[in-house]
């Protein structure tokens, strides 16, 4: 439910037994999967990419995407995630060379934990086709027009006040337009964040800083480190910060039973589908995210992101102080955040919250992403309302794909899922939203049953 903490170097990957901090036996050594899987401690991390074994123990702290996202794959095959996250894998491989300690033994399979090799190969073939057809290339004109409509909304909101004054009706309309621009800027910064991976000097990276910082008052680095974890291990407890509910909610089918058996009752969870409306949509952005963002920027000494964030508040108060004064401007931005928060929660949760949630299961990329995501039907309104995140499946399979190509790859993904019997769920917008409440009620009932009878 969007409750992840800030990113620190003390974060801990999945627990396992065996292994040690030794860096390995040299780049020409060979290893079995059993040996690799022992090295998944916080102080001892190996992973495999294209059958090559790397010791990332020390380098993980310097990983541009944050220590957590790479540590989540310690002791595992990270090939599919590596390809999915990096726009230019060859550019990144130069950082891997010093970390190489060997490779898998010739007798070892390419996939770990008994993954379906045919499915993995078929998905790789699909990705190769996607790349060859240019579906991972962004169209600058599309994003320029999208940014333009956000700036136009901001200008119209301010213009209404200059022309018509600060009556209640005009102020309410202004607030709705600002909330709309904030929500749409949120979807746009999400695009730029994914498109600027490992290209810190590129135009996408600069635009990401501008949109999330100057247009929204948030932090690009905070968002990157948090959001990439969600993509790496969606709906996996202790690895996806979006389902770290801080004991406020119990989610899925397993967590409620675990809490119930342990007699944990931080909240009346059998009523969580009701109090969700009071503390979920209204508070996630104006309270929880704002506190987390500023705490992270100060604790990490991220002064660049802090400067971008402050430029948003400076611009906002310069524009609206003449109409509402200081406290009126604070009330306005608080109300805008309140409206935006509802929009954000429903769009992001309807594709994930009702889906499977579990502890680590070491699934292949396609199966893991499809079990945690669903799509919402395509329409002009749904595309705009959700920032094309109604194509959540395609976005999770190809996180660096620009949104304007999701509809082109969707039929190919559906065909692959049908071939391998992987469920591909598509819902109406109404069902997606009602399923959020239904899933919360189901989880609350599971907790109550376990709490009372087990």
From TrEMBL:
It holds the Pfam family Cyt-b5. GO terms for molecular function: oxidoreductase activity, acting on paired donors, with oxidation of a pair of donors resulting in the reduction of molecular oxygen to two molecules of water. The chain crosses the membrane at residues 141-164, 275-293, 313-336. Residues 1-29 are annotated as: Disordered. This is Cytochrome b5 heme-binding domain-containing protein. Signal peptide: none annotated. Keywords: Fatty acid biosynthesis, Fatty acid metabolism, Lipid biosynthesis, Lipid metabolism, Membrane, Oxidoreductase, Transmembrane, Transmembrane helix. The gene is LOC109884128. It is a multi-pass membrane protein. GO terms for cellular component: membrane. Its main location: membrane. It comes from Oncorhynchus kisutch (Coho salmon).
């Amino acid at each position: 439910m969007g409750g992840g903490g800030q990113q620190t170097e003390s974060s801990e990957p999945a627990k396992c037994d065996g292994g040690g901090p030794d860096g390995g036996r040299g780049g020409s050594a060979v290893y079995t999967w059993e040996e690799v899987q022992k090295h998944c401690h916080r102080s001892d991390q190996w992973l495999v990419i294209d059958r090559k074994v790397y010791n990332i123990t020390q380098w993980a702290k310097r990983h541009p995407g944050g220590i957590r996202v790479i540590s989540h794959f310690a002791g595992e095959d990270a090939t599919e995630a590596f390809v999915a996250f990096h726009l230019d894998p060859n550019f990144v491989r130069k950082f891997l060379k010093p970390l190489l300690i060997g490779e898998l033994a010739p007798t070892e399979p390419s996939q770990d934990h008994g993954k379906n090799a045919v499915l993995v190969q078929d998905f790789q073939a699909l990705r190769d086709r996607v790349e060859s057809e240019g579906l991972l290339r962004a169209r600058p004109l599309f994003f320029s027009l999208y940014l333009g409509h956000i700036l136009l909304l901001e200008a119209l909101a301010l213009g209404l006040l200059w022309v018509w004054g600060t009556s209640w009706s005009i102020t309410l309309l202004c607030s709705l337009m600002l909330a709309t621009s904030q929500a749409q800027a949120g979807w746009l910064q999400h695009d730029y964040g994914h498109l600027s991976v490992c290209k810190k000097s590129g135009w996408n990276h600069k635009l990401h800083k501008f949109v999330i910082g100057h247009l929204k008052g948030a932090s690009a680095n905070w968002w990157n480190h948090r959001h990439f974890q969600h993509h790496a291990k969606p709906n996996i407890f202790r690895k996806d910060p979006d389902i770290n509910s801080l004991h406020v909610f119990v989610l899925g089918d397993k967590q409620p039973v675990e809490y119930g058996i342990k007699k944990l009752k931080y909240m009346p969870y059998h009523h969580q589908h009701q109090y969700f409306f009071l503390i979920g949509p209204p508070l996630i952005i104006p309270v929880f995210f704002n506190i987390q963002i500023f705490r992270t920027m100060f604790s990490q000494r991220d002064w660049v992101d802090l400067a971008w964030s402050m430029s948003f508040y400076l611009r906002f108060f310069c524009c609206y102080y003449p109409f509402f004064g200081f406290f009126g401007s604070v009330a306005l931005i608080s109300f805008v955040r309140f409206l935006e928060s509802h929009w954000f929660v429903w769009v992001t949760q309807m594709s994930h919250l009702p889906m499977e949630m579990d502890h680590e299961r070491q699934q292949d990329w396609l199966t893991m992403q499809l079990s945690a995501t669903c799509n919402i039907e395509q329409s002009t309104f749904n595309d705009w309302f959700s920032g094309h995140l109604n194509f959540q499946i395609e976005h999770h399979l190809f996180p660096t794909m620009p949104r304007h190509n999701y509809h082109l790859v969707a039929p190919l993904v559906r065909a692959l899922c049908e071939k391998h019997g992987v469920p591909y769920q598509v819902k109406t917008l109404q069902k997606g939203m009602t399923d959020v409440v239904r899933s919360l009620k189901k989880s609350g009932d599971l907790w109550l049953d376990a709490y009372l009878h087990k």
